[in-house]
Amino acid sequence: MNKAVIIGLGLIGGSIALELRKRCGYTLWGIDANPAHINKATALGIIDNEVDYEAIKEADVVIISVPVHITPQVVAKALDYVGEQTLVFDVGSVKERICKHVENHSNRSHFVAGHPLAGTEFSGPESAVYDLFDGKVMVLCDTEKSHWKHLDKAIEISKKLNMRVKMMPAHDHDLHAAYVSHLSHVISFVLGQTVLDIERNEQQIFDMASTGFASTARLAKSSPSTWSPIFLENKKHVLRSMEEYIKNLQNFKQLIENEDDENLRKTIKEINYIKKILQK
C-alpha cells in the first residue's frame, strides 16, 4: 500500500489527504506543529497516525501544506530524509522563493513545486473536504529540475484529484497569482475593513448585506496566518497588482464624480468581457 506523509493538516493538506485515501488507497501519516491539529485530524480520519521526519524515507509522497514563509525550510528538511522513491510535493501559493531555496539541494530532483488553484475561506483540519479539487487547475513549476519519475507521480496524483495540469516557471506563476488570486483577497479584506469602519451597527450590516456583498466579502473570512505570509512573500507582484487596481479604482471614481454616464456605461461594458474569459 502506498504511503503519504502530510505536513500541515489544514484545508489543503487535509483535503488532499482525504482524496489520497479515497481515490488512491494511501495510508496517511501526519506532521503538524500544532498538536491540536494532529488530534483533530486523527479523530476525523484524515490521517492514520502522527509521525516525525524519519518516516519520510518510507513514504511514496510527502505533501507540504504549511504557511508559505516557512515552506522553503520545511521542503529542504523533508528532502534531507527522502528515500529513493519519495516525491516531495509542496502546494503553496508562492513558488519562486521556495524553488530558489532548494535549487542546490542534493535531492532537488525529488521535489515538485505545485499550486492547486482551489480553496475556501476556512482553515484547520475540520475545514478539509472531499471534491475540493474537482475540475480545478494544478500548476507545476520549474518541472525541468524534477526527475521524470517524481514529476510523473505528481501529475498522476493531480489527475487522481480530477485536476487539470498546467506548467510554468515559478516567476511567471507568482506574477499571475498576484493578479488572479492574491489581489482578490486584498480587495475582499479591504472591503470588509471599509464596511466595518463606516457601518458600526453590526445588525445593519447583517440586514443590508446582499448576496453581492456576501460573495465579494467572503474571502475576508480567510485566515490571517495563511494570507499575511502570502502577501509578504509575493510582495513585489502583489504591490504591482495593487497599484494597477488603485489606478483603475481612481479612474472609476472620477467617472462617478463627473456624472459621466456615457463613459461609465462604456467602462462597465468593456469590463463585462471578463464573463467570456471566466466561462471558458
Automatic annotation (TrEMBL):
Keywords: Oxidoreductase
GO MF annotation list: NAD+ binding; prephenate dehydrogenase (NAD+) activity; prephenate dehydrogenase (NADP+) activity
Gene3D superfamilies given in the database record: 6-phosphogluconate dehydrogenase C-terminal like domain (1.10.3660.10), NAD(P)-binding Rossmann-like Domain (3.40.50.720)
Cited SUPFAM superfamilies: 6-phosphogluconate dehydrogenase C-terminal domain-like, NAD(P)-binding Rossmann-fold domains
Domain Prephenate/arogenate dehydrogenase: 2-280
Record-linked InterPro entries: 6-PGluconate_DH-like_C_sf (IPR008927), NAD(P)-bd_dom_sf (IPR036291), PDH_C (IPR046825), PDH_N (IPR046826), Preph/Arog_dehydrog (IPR050812), Prephen_DH (IPR003099)
Coiled coil, from the record: none
Source domain of life: Bacteria
Example GO BP: tyrosine biosynthetic process
EC number: 1.3.1.12
Matches recorded under PANTHER family: PREPHENATE DEHYDROGENASE, PREPHENATE DEHYDROGENASE [NADP(+)]
Protein name per the record: Prephenate dehydrogenase
